[in-house]
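User: Structure with pyridoxal-5'-phosphate, tokens only please.
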Amino acid sequence: MRPVVLCFSGLDPSGGAGLQADIEAIGQSGAHAAIACTALTIQNSQQVFGFEAVSSPLLLAQANAVVSDLPIRCVKSGMLGTTDNIAALAQFLREHPDYLYVLDPVLVANSGGALGDQQTLVRAFAELIPLATVLTPNTVELRALTGEQDLEKATRKLFAMGAKAVLVKGGHEDTPDHIRNALYINMEMVSESTYPRLPGEYHGSGCSLASFVAGRLAQGDHLKQAVQHAEIWLSGALKNAETPVPGGQKIPKRF
Ligand code: PLP
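Assistant:
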């Protein structure tokens, strides 16, 4: 069987982000996605109306059901919803130190809607940071996680908090014509990539990128290679993204 990425992620009914983005991206990367669902959200491509998180025992029961059943190589987390779920995932990862782990520290949807209480989530993420093979924050999440506005200082602080590698995604920066991503391993920048900024807003681009990285890592890519593959693949999915309704965020075309 293909290597498996076990995702801890939420359901987005629009199909743009969350667990559907994970399944599609991981499938496209060549791996198989398994899901432990963290929350059901109520949202469309434009707005988050609310969400209900699953309990942490239910979350762990889903994950544990597939541990001895599927060849899991990597865990990927997106929306976790509650601090209990973050603590449950930390416990799960400590029980499985051989799993690679991609931590996408989701706090808000791209449309701006909250996917949990930001302050308590930020505090709880501190437990997950040292467990991750790589973190994939956008710059809003990077600043929120570290309390530092300056991106260089914020990145350094994330390493001081125990990070091993960080992919900083520049999509939220005020760079009208381009987006710059940078990959740091052990505090050192090992690659940098710049892409033309495509017009419009995208729903689920972060989930897709992190999941593709997880899928490639599960298949044996080195981190730098996995990120390069994921960025190239995501560029195509964003170029071909579909606009659901006028004013709606574009949904990446991942196939
Ligand atoms: N997970 C869920 C369930 C979501 O609904 C969202 C955004 O709506 C995200 C994660 C993060 O999405 P993005 O990839 O746009 O940052």
